[in-house]
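Trying the structure run again after the queue cleared.
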Amino acid sequence: MNGLIEAWTAHETELRNWLRGQLRGAPEAVDDLVQDIFLKAIRQNRRFAAIDNPRAWFFKVARNTLADRLRTRRELVELSADFPRPEPDALPVVDDLAACLPRALAELSGPDREALTCCDLEGMTQAEYARLHGLSLAGAKSRVQRARKRLREHLTRACQVRFDETGQVCCFVPRPPAE
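Done. Tokens:
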């Protein structure tokens, strides 16, 4: 952990200045991104010590995190007051489905569970996952996609998850937590 703190202290100001230039003066967004990058470094745990060039790693993660943030940023449109609101019972059940997810993940094979946990839950990039497991980037992407497909199939079977025409979860049958 000391290596991480030393590397972070040495490069945080430069990283922050670069992000300021990229975001053209949005200080809250810069702070959010810097925090995200630091958390990703912490999630590396002992693997961070094996990184040969922490500065390059920080900037690579910063570029990827910034690209993800910009890709998902959407313009908000103000809705009129007479816009029809959905009935409370018609709202998506995704929050309740979260209770089924840990059990469904636990029931997947070890490699599927690890790929989903690393890349989808812990925020590891697929390139990092590939390097860590001795895979090509294409191989890692395939592994993650297959694991996602098997998780979806398992949720459909085990929790009776159903999807609407847009691919969103519309309903499911909850399962009791695993003992």
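The first strand starts at residue 162 and ends at 163. Worth checking whether this holds up in the mutant runs.
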